Amino acid sequence: MKNLIIITFLISSIALFSQTQRDDFLGIWEWQNNNQTFRVNFFNEPDGDGTFSLAGHFTMLETDVSGNETILYTSDRFIETTNERFIPMINGGRYCDWIDSFRFSLMDNTTTKTLLLGVLDLKFISISLGNPLQITWKLRVDGMASVGEVFNVPTDITLTKQ
Amino acid sequence: MNKVRDLKNKDTLTYETSVAIFDDNSIGEYQGVANNSTVQTLPTSPSSDYISMAHVHNENATIKSYSVPSLGDLQWIARRYKDGYLNTSEFTAFLATADGTYFALTINNPTKLWKFFRYMDAGNFNITIQERIEASKKLKEVYKPILKKYYYDEQSALIQENAQGATNNEQQLRYFMQFLKEADIGITVFESNENFSTFTKLSIKGFDVKRSTTPCTL
User: Fold this and answer.
1) Which end of chain A is flanked by fewer CB atoms within 10 Å, N or C?
2) Helical ranges in chain B per DSSP H
3) Which residues, numbered 178 to 217 in chain B, qualify as contacts with chain A under a Cβ-Cβ cut-off of 8 Å?
4) Domains in chain B: boundaries
5) What is d(CA B57, CA B61) in angstroms, rounded to the nearest whole number?
6) What is the tens place of the pLDDT at every residue in A1-13?
7) Among all residues of chain A, which has the CA nearest to that of B73?
8) What would the mean pLDDT of B104-121 be, rounded to a whole number?
9) Cβ contacts (< 8 Å) between A105 and chain B: which residues?
10) What is the ipTM, given to two decimal places?
11) Which residues of A touch B137 (CB under 8 A)?
12) A123–chain B Cβ distance below 8 A for any pair
């Protein structure tokens, strides 16, 4: 009986840990590079059947000396001159134990070419209590790629929760 | 073909390798960078069309890969077709994986292949707005019912890396064949031996992978 209680506690703890880590993604994350800010927004996307999936959009901003922000590019946009909007360009979030990271797919819709599909691995960084959450962002092309098929978005950065 | 056959010996490297064969019989070898399981140096617009592309899904302590072709692999083929650099009637893609699986893929219907992947054109400024709208609608149509189900689901994507073992390899193959059928993607799959000298045509019936009783040889 005692062993059963311990096992139940451990399973519950693992499930709670996973759910907590998943929920920690929700919200705004930023990476600063001089006067540019790469901002990622994670949210719960309705699946239409009462369930939700983790999803995200990304934006690159530039801030002038007066603090005014200009959008350099964003995945969260309409197709020009239409009312057709892109679906979230970041999806997934399956935990991969061999790299202790959450694996997402990212489609880069910010170039003027065809969408480039990427594998995005996000890993929580251990930080001390009281400091903001941070994750490493590592992005690579999914499968094969040819010369010039590169992302517009950053591929190797650290994001801080806002 | 010897360079293609040699791929199986490169499945534990820290980078992915590939071999391309072109219509003028020239051969190119390419590789990715260490600890990044992607080959990024294949020619975008070669002087002669691709008639074959072979690559390996490598695995080590920090890289785990699919025992079947990835969606990105298929997108690469579709992209080359769309750009006009693929001899579709002769093209064969070969894949060797660290899980001990070997496949050859041919295109049985290039129109269907691009019809499925046309969602890639949603942001392409080189086509008309109407075509981009159609591509965007296509993305909505295929994402949740097909792409998410097989490759991207947050918890339970059917096709996952690091399958390990014959039973899991067979299960992953079944999911991949189901994906191709559901996507109606115009691709034919052959299972191969590790020397890429014998090929067995695969199909899916219900939940079972069916193997042709008359393998072909090279």
Assistant:
1) N
2) 2-5, 71-83, 110-117, 129-142, 166-183
3) none
4) 2-217
5) 14
6) 555 555 544 444 4
7) A143
8) 95
9) 151-152
10) 0.86
11) 84
12) no
Secondary structure string (H, E, C) spanning chain A: CHHHHHHHHHHHHHHHHHHHHHHHCCEEEEEEECCEEEEEEEEEEECCCCCEEEEEEEEEEEECCCCCEEEEEECCCECCCCCCECCCCEEEEEEECCCCEEEEEEEECCCCCCCEEEEEEEEECCCCCCCCCEEEEEEEECCCCECCCCCCCCCEEEEEEC
Q: Amino acid identity of B30? A: Y
Identify the sign of the CA torsion B143, B145, B146, B152: positive
Residue identified by tokens 């390899």 is: B169
Contact present, B8 and B56 (Cβ < 8 Å): yes
- Distance (Å, rounded) from C-alpha A1 to C-alpha A3? 5
What angle is formed at CA B118 by the lines to CA B113 and CA B123, rounded to 5 degrees? 155
Of A53, A111, A141, the CB nearest to B154: A53
Give the distance from residue B100's alpha carbon to the nearest chain A alpha carbon, in angstroms. Answer: 18
Nearest to B154 among A92, A143, A145 (CB): A92
B152 φ/ψ angles, rounded to the nearest 5 degrees: -115, -5
Single-letter code of the amino acid located at A23: D
Q: How far apart are CA A3 and CA A142, in angstroms?
A: 44
pLDDT in tens, A21-50: 888 999 999 999 999 999 999 999 998 888
* Distance (Å, whole) CA A100 – CA B169: 23
Chain B partners within 8 Å of A54 (Cβ): 154
Query: What are the backbone angles phi and psi of residue A21, rounded to the nearest 5°?
Result: -60, -40
Interchain contact, B73 vs A109, CB within 8 Å: no
Tokens encoding A3: 């062993």
Encode B154-165: b = buried (16+ Cβ within 10 Å), e = exposed: beebebbbbbee
Q: Do A92 and B157 touch (CB under 8 A)?
A: yes
Q: How far is CA B84 from CA B48, B49, B50, B81, in A?
A: 10, 8, 10, 5
Q: Dig out the tokens for B41 from the structure.
A: 């140096």
Taking the Cβ of residue A41 and every Cβ of chain B, the question of whether any pair is shorter than 8 Å is answered with no
Q: Is A30 on the interface with B (CB under 8 A)?
A: no
Whether B148 sits inside 8 A of A84 (CB atoms) is: no
